[in-house]
Amino acid sequence: EVKLVESGGGSVQPGGSLRLSCVVTGNQYRSYCMGWFRQAPGKERERVGIIERDGSTEYEDSAKGRFTISRDNDKNTLYLQMNSLKPEDTAMYFCAAFGDYCYRGLSIYEYQYWGQGTQVTVSS
Predict the structure, then answer these.
(1) 3-class DSSP state for residue 3?
(2) On the chain, which terminus has fewer CB atoms closer than 10 Å, C or N?
């Protein structure tokens, strides 16, 4: 069974930083494309960005220049470094795994494994 467990969420003032982590159980982590997603109250879940098996990354416009996704394959861990946080970044953040390359047009619904989420609140 594959499990994803996020941590690192919390409350921060605008302009602050947080680092989220996502630990993945099992021995297939290296083969997954990993993604970070978020869902604000009353809104649909949206992609923040992804990191491929080879370490290449893609980000949504809302995250470019402020967020950085990285992975440590030896620790089965995915990271999301968030800087210059804004109130509109307030959401539940989820990590997810897809068992192949994240091809263009990959739907959020095609990710096979999801974590339970960690809350990020940005407020003064």
Answers:
(1) coil
(2) N
**Rounded distance between C-alpha atoms, residue 36 and residue 49, angstroms:** 6
**45 closest CA partner among 95, 4, 11:** 95
**Tens of pLDDT, residues 12-23:** 999 999 999 999
Q: In 10 A of CB 33, how many CB atoms?
A: 20
Alpha carbons 22 and 48: distance in angstroms, whole number: 14
Q: What is the pairing mode between strands 118-122 and 10-12?
A: parallel
Please state, rounded to an integer, the average pLDDT across all residues of the chain: 96
Q: Which residue has the tokens 């879940």?
A: 45
Report the alpha-carbon distance of residue 79 to residue 21 in Å, rounded.
5
CA 109 to chain centre: 15
Distance CA 95, CA 101 (A): 16
Helices (H), 5-119: none
- Indicate the DSSP class of residue 14: T
Has residue 120 got a pLDDT over 90? Answer: yes
